[in-house]
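Suppose a classmate hands you a notebook page containing two proteins, each written out with its sequence and a corresponding row of structure tokens. How would you begin to make sense of it? This section walks through that situation. The first entry is reproduced here exactly as it would appear on such a page.
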Amino acid sequence: DGYDDVIVGAYRDASYTGKAYVWHGSSTGLSYDSGDDAGDADWSIAGEGTNDYYGASVASAGDVNGDGYDDVIVGAYRDASSTGKTYVWHGHGYIQKGMFDSAVLDVDCTCGVDWQSLSWNPVVQPDGTSVKAQIGTSDDGVTWSWRGPDGSSTSYYTEATGQAIYSGDRGKFLRVHFIMESEYGTGGAVVGNLVSTHTPTVTDFTVSYGKFTTPSVFLTWPNGGENLMHGENYTITWESEGDMSATTPISLDYSLNEGSTWSSITSGTANDGNYRWAVPENQNVERALIRITATALDGSTVQDTSDGTFSIDPPEFWQTGDDGETADTEPPVITMFPLGTATAGKPVTIRAEISDETAVTQVALRYTAGDGEPVTVAMSPAGNGVWEVVLLPTEGSLELAVIASDGTNVVETEATSLEVAAGAAPVAPASSGSLFAAAALGAVAMLGALALRRRPD
């Protein structure tokens, strides 16, 4: 092939029986697969007996038989009680083992890619031959990680008809490393046209993949500064976009020590923008956090954490005045914003302005749909004394009331009606190259409960 090869002798192999190995040269150096031992050799042959010291001396012999191919010479100086013996092995233009790397495959986009399966042709190889492969992935096209189907560097793809690519191979760039081997051509005379009858080949290969939008997720409530009651139910809300895996790609955790340790709320829930959380009993902390994790289509994850800490049943919630002794006699004043119109299936924002002589600690919206049971959801501060929550209503009538507490006084507005018109029939989404699309409406409050308790007299 125009490249020099290397022959190596290992005369102490197998109790000094000895063995000789040949590695072929190539445009990138010596050929070898991902292993780190002599099993990578393109050709090898052992001595005939123990203590022969076969391979103690090795060299190229030139073209001894004049067939146009170089031969090798191997010495076994202790053969036959140190009588010694020399072996000449004829080259024959037949490669017992070969390998090549494919061109780099690049999805050429800023999206994520889910590498799915590898197959190649021909599916059937000649008797006594085999083809195997590994997948290399890279984020920059320079540093490559080579793995087989189980994710290890010692496993190989062997099913030409198609085999799933290891889920951890997520790089933007991909290439395939093929290794072709034959049981023939292990030395000695060559009979027949082995090049055509016993040579494994790869004429083409296929890598299937799916492009997807890398997801992002943003926690919207609780996001810092809230006061929650232990043992009560609250609705955690978030916004997200991008393509996520399966049907339960969202995991939620909470921390009671500002992120030093975490406990699971749920290890898998739907990406519908909200989750009802039962706050743990008997907690009295001021440094709580929520963490949300979203799993992408390729198995990678993205996270977001509350921007600031929130309190669970904090002591000052029950105090009145700076010293805890001065009575707070002025309740909060609630002014609801005009409701406007609402359409089923479309988010509607409910806002109210709350003022108080001390500080408003909690605000909630209580709503009833038709003849259903009342549902209470927490409202979040939007700045300048305004609190808000987003609902995703169904067709019909909603009765709404806003509740506010300053830690001493609890007030509730009179119920206000909101008529929800029927929404348009859903339209099937246009076909796209992504395999799965998941999107959530931000801060959608579907279900939840909030208990507002008055300080005992």
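The notebook's second entry, a different protein, reads as follows.
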Amino acid sequence: MKQAKITISRWRYLLLVGVLFMLPVAGLWHIAGLQVLTDVDKGFQFLQGQGLARTVRTESIPAYRGVITDSRGEPLAVSTPVVTLWANPQVIDSTSPGLTGLAKQLSMSRDELQQRLSRYSNKEFMYLARQMTPEQAEQVLRLEIPGVYGQDEYKRFYPAGEVTSQLVGFTNIDDRGQEGMELAFDELLTGVPGAKKVLKDLKGRVIKDLTLVRSEKPGQNLALSIDLRLQYIAYRELKAAVVKHQAASGSVVMLDVQTGEILAMANQPSFNPNDRSRMSSDSLRNRAITDLVEPGSTMKPLTVLAALESGKFVPETVIDTNPGSIRVGRKTFYDHRNYGLIDLTTLLMKSSQVGVTKLALQLDPTHVRDMFFRMGLGQSPGTGFPGESPGSLPEHRRWKPVERANFAFGYGLSATALQLAQAYAVLASDG
């Protein structure tokens, strides 16, 4: 059977060919309008403007610094959110009327602000104000001045103020430890910043959070052994004693004699870490750990302990302190009065120079030094505190008699208040 031949009218054929021809022409025209032609509505100039107006940026996410607490969880150092204002001097219009309002918010004159902008005119970054409260920063950012931006940060706050200042220490404006525990454990307390991609407009305002690149990791918390209740009492009593005796400085240390933990440690003079405008270098030191003194008569109990340990003496041993003085070499040591015949207990009660000297001259000087060393003198206490001093505990090849006497009642050596407290803690805990 013969098949019928399918035909199409000529005009339909030409119409189809024409449509197929016009499609690529229209596409090329549209592409040209977007990329080449200047007078086309929403052409390449429009698209470039939109691209410039919305840019993708990677922003840092600040990490929270670890909290420092006392042994009961009371906060000694915490971080609060703040905002740092910065500017791009190459974007800011120095003739803009908005600069007057900006200068007012920054507590300066318009001329001062313009001078600062002029000094950084060849830079793309300058700080306007560091660590403002979010409310203060919002007032500035609300002015919507092109080239002025805000950056989220954290600022350290110390609830106990001057009571724990030398012990806890403080951070700098970049939140890095500078003194005290803040410095000693800076690596532990410091967190790791995160990052995120955001869409910003020309004024630097975030239009949209796009993706989280990396989550921030907060720093670890640090719990100290001190008890803030005891710390307040120690600080108050020390301050009163310094004022009463018109002393230049003072330190106090309280220990748990069973565990050796520091329960309180305070110094005078002190400072307020939340307001460092009047802070002096003299008030920064944690004197209880860094400053050395000749311990003097506070070493007499340790010398008596060395005498008892030697086996040559017992508590009832009688020492003849007549006539109230003793000459050793070219030096004469005196008691406040002639105590006559006294036992070791009375020797300590009266703090007899003569009695301790007679003990020392009958003991091996290396045995006395060894007792002092075993009590923690001449070695680091191991607190990890910056500037911690081991003190000085000399060791002579040959001990002169006068050196043996001086050494026995605390001269010719040096120690910190903490070392002395640790030595006495041994006595308080029955050895």
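A careful reader of the second entry would note: The chain has a mean pLDDT of 89.
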